């Protein structure tokens, strides 16, 4: 009986192994993992570089860049206010306005100099004496000359020939010293102003200045026809701040026409 029972147990175990398909000495194989689908890779986008300031093109240049503005109160910068007070305001004077205009247009050029050698109350005859020392000290390439208003205001018509004679001598002297000379006609005066005594004689003087410039080889800056009385202050002689801006622009245009060269290649 015991032998029969033992045989039965053995047969039972053999049957169990056979049903499982396994083996007591072989592990059940591990299933192979299946690859999981991956999302598509987005295309690589290279960002544009940040926009920076554009480089301006080269500016034109001036063949001559050192200027001396020489004259009386209209050069030094006496401003006439609505209350008829006057004061020297060099930052508003035409040489300062001219320097700003030139440096704005010729922004690549660092050697531009405009010196203000105006002297309020000066007669042209006194300017003739002063000019040689100014040229020696300042060494300009170009002299911008505008004188004669005080002769007119003090001497009337008799002042015309005196102012013209002094201007002629100044042009000759400056050219002899190696300077190019620009000579300007005077702006109009307001006869009703307290300092506008020379108003009746301005056009006569300007006609003589135009002739002298042609005779003496100076470049004419014809201010008078480019001005109107709205730019002349209430005292009748001196300019408003807007008038000095305009005067600076007139000189800047004359300089551009004479000395501007193309940008360097």
Distance between the termini: 122 Å
Largest sheet: 5 strands, parallel
For the record, the count of structural domains works out to: 1
CATH architectural label: 3-Layer(aba) Sandwich
Q: How does the overall form come out from the CA principal axes?
A: globular
CATH topology: Rossmann fold
**Helical residues, percent:** 40-55%
Quick overview of this protein structure:
It contains eight helices and nine strands. The chain is α/β, with parallel strands linked by helices.
Describe what you observe in this structure.
By secondary structure, this protein is an alpha/beta fold. It has one domain (61-261): Rossmann fold (3-Layer(aba) Sandwich). 42% of the residues lie in helices and 13% in strands. The chain has a five-stranded parallel beta sheet with strand order 5-2-6-7-8, with helices on both faces. The model is unreliable at 1-24 (pLDDT under 50).
């Amino acid at each position: 009986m015991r032998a029969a029972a033992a045989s039965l147990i053995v047969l039972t175990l053999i049957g169990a192994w056979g049903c499982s398909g396994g083996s007591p000495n072989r592990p059940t194989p591990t299933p192979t993992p299946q690859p999981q689908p991956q999302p598509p890779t987005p295309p690589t986008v290279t960002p544009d570089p940040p926009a920076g300031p554009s480089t301006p093109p080269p500016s034109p240049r001036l063949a001559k860049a050192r200027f001396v503005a020489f004259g009386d109160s209209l050069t030094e910068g006496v401003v006439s206010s609505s209350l008829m007070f006057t004061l020297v305001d060099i930052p508003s004077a035409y040489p300062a306005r001219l320097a700003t205009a030139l440096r704005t247009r010729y922004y690549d050029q660092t050697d531009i100099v405009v010196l203000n050698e105006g002297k309020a109350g000066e007669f042209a005859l006194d300017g003739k004496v002063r000019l040689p020392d100014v040229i020696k000290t300042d060494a300009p390439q170009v002299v911008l000359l505008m004188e004669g208003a005080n002769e007119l205001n003090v001497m009337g018509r008799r002042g015309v020939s005196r102012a013209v004679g002094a201007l002629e001598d100044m042009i000759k002297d400056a050219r002899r010293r190696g300077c190019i000379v620009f000579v300007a006609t005077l702006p109009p005066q307001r006869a009703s102003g307290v300092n506008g005594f020379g108003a009746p004689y301005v056009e006569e003087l300007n006609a003589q200045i135009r002739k002298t410039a042609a005779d003496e080889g100076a470049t004419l800056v014809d201010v008078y026809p480019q001005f109107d009385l709205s730019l002349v202050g209430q005292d009748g002689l001196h300019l408003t701040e807007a008038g000095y801006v305009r005067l600076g622009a007139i000189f800047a245009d004359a300089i551009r026409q004479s000395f501007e060269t193309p940008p360097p290649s």
